[in-house]
Amino acid sequence: MSYLNPLSNVQIDVDKLPSLDDVRLIPLEKNYLKVRLIAWLVWTIIFVGMYLVAYIIFNIFTVQWLFWSASFLILFLILLIFVFSYFGYNYMFYAVRQKDIMFTRGLVVRTTTVVPFNRIQHIEVGHGPVDRFFGLATLKVFTAGGQSSDLQIPGLSRVKAQQLKDFITRKAALDEEE
Fold this sequence. Notes:
Helix content is 44%, strand content 22%. With 178 residues, it is α+β, with helices and mostly antiparallel strands.
């Protein structure tokens, strides 16, 4: 019976790991704030319209204080969503590094998503009608095993989104060859 070498599992000093603070994060296009606020306004109009239709046609509130309580709650939620939409824009950044792409977002809860190029299966550039009006697009990055995108970077100029798509496609193909 031959002697097996023990497996090496050296501990890494976590204080010497590279920090995400060293990454130069790129903000989204300024027009994306307008897109977010327009989307907020459209959804608000739809929701308030449905609320008023339910009140007028179906007379869902037989007690007046219930109507005013529900109205106050709805107004509070609308304002809260506006605050998160408006100020949340200032906390959305992306970065492209040598081996991956990352997106960070979040006003209250910060989320950073990093996708290595060698895991990317598919990339899309999409833009809705409001995005097109402002010349913006969303880069969607897909990895294996999912129906939805693993990373979405909204608020890019159409040119920048297409450049990133082309770069990542080439980079992912090179990483596969290695």
